[in-house]
Amino acid sequence: MIRVDVESTFEPIIGSEIQSKELINYLMKDKESGSQNIWKSEIFGRSLDVIVQEGIQAKLSLMPESVRFKLKQTLSKLVNKGSGNLFAIVI
Predict the structure, then answer these.
(1) Structural domain tally of the chain?
(2) Residue 2 domain-assigned?
(3) How many whole angstroms separate alpha carbon 42 and alpha carbon 28?
(4) Distance between CA atoms of 3 and 11, rounded to whole angstroms?
(5) Please, where are the H alpha helices in 1-91?
(6) 18-71 pLDDT tens trace
(7) pLDDT at 76 exceeding the cut of 60
(8) DSSP-derived secondary structure letter, 81
(9) The domain containing residue 32 runs over which residues?
(10) Pair 76, 87: CB distance under 8 Å
(11) How many CB atoms lie within 10 A of CB 48?
C-alpha cells in the first residue's frame, strides 16, 4: 500500500459569516477532547470522515479506467522489479 496526499474540499456553509463561525466552534469543541475526534463530528447526519472519504472516492471514480490501469501497471513494476528503475509520470 502506498500513501499519497489527496486534496479534498468540504464546503458545508451557504450562509452568513456567523453560521460559518458556529460550525468552526462546533468542530473545535470536539478537538479539545482529541484531534481525531474532529473526524467523528456529525454534520448533516454523517461524520466528517465519511463525507471526506466520499469526496475522495468521487475523485477516483472520475479517473478514466485506462489511466487507473496504466498507473496500476507502473506501480506494480516499480514495486516488484526494485528501485533501480526510473519512472516519470507526466500529467
Answers:
(1) 1
(2) no
(3) 13
(4) 25
(5) 17-31, 48-62, 65-80
(6) 888 888 888 888 777 777 788 888 888 888 889 888 888 888 888 898 988 888
(7) yes
(8) S
(9) 17-80
(10) no
(11) 19
For 13, phi and psi rounded to 5 degrees?
A: -100, 125
pLDDT class for 81, splitting at 50, 70, 90?
A: confident
Identify whether 22 is part of a domain. yes
Alpha-carbon gap, residue 77 to 86, rounded angstroms: 11
Q: Could you tell me the three cell numbers for 16? A: 452568513
Q: Which grid coordinates belong to 45?
A: 447526519
Q: Which three cell numbers stand for residue 78?
A: 516499480
**Do the domain assignments include residue 10?**
no
Coil, strand, or helix at residue 1? Answer: coil
At 14, which amino acid appears? I
Taking 70 as the threshold, does the pLDDT of residue 83 lie above it? Answer: no
- Residue 23 to residue 74: CA distance in whole angstroms: 42
58 in any annotated domain: yes
